[in-house]
UniProtKB/TrEMBL annotation:
Domain of life: Bacteria
Annotated InterPro entries: NERD, Topo_IA_Znf
Protein name: NERD domain-containing protein
Matching PROSITE patterns: NERD (PS50965)
SUPFAM superfamilies per UniProt: Zinc beta-ribbon
Natural source organism: Piscibacillus salipiscarius
Length: 207
């Protein structure tokens, strides 16, 4: 799906119905999953090993916004964000989420079916389905080309992000909040820390 940056974004699943449109992001992770709604990164723990994953609520928020833009509709309060983890993971969240449902695959049908009040008329729903069907690529060669460009756009975006971050670090500015950076010493050596800690928990490697 095209996004506002002139590139594309890849949405896992979109379910349309008279009761709402459900934008679904699927995650195939193992281990324990920890995270909060407004944290940039969540944590995956497998025994003693910990890995970061980008907050899927934030990720799917971008998908929802791209969908709104593509459909060119101002009032779309019937869009629902759902994050679905496989059963290989154990969700260890302490707080409830307000902007999205975070569940596992066996709960998905129930999460969609709990919406009982019709929100979209037949004509509007048909228009939405027709617009989304227009995005489906049937030609395999064209599909590979689109996917190749999508991956290239992601890599370019990542390079630009890394470059900007390095430039901000050179100026002793925090890439996350704009606060002052200073070198600190920790258990595993020196690192950059933000002066706005604990509100901002940005850390960066010292090259």
């Amino acid at each position: 799906m095209p996004n506002k940056e002139g590139c594309t974004t890849q949405i896992d699943h979109v379910v349309t119905s008279p009761y709402g449109i459900f934008v679904i992001e699927t995650k195939h992770y193992q281990g324990w999953i920890f995270g909060k709604e407004h944290q940039r990164y969540w944590t995956q723990t497998i025994y003693k090993r910990k890995e970061k994953l980008y907050n899927p609520i934030w990720q799917n928020y971008g998908h929802v916004q791209s969908l709104k833009q593509f459909l060119s509709k101002e009032d779309m309060n019937y869009l629902y964000s759902i994050i679905v983890f496989t059963q290989d993971s154990t969700l260890k969240f302490k707080d409830d989420f307000k902007s999205a449902r975070v569940i596992q695959i066996p709960q998905l049908v129930g999460a969609i079916s709990e919406r009982k009040l019709p929100r979209i008329g037949r004509t509007e729903l048909a228009e939405i389905n027709h617009a989304l069907e227009g995005l489906i690529i049937h030609d395999r060669k064209e599909k590979r080309q689109v996917m190749k460009k999508h991956v290239a756009d992601i890599k370019t975006k990542q390079k630009v992000k890394v470059f900007k971050e390095k430039e901000q670090i050179k100026q002793n500015l925090c890439p996350k909040c704009g606060g002052k950076l200073s070198q600190k010493k920790g258990k595993y050596g020196s690192f950059y820390g933000c002066s706005n800690y604990p509100k901002c928990r940005y850390t960066g490697k010292v090259s």
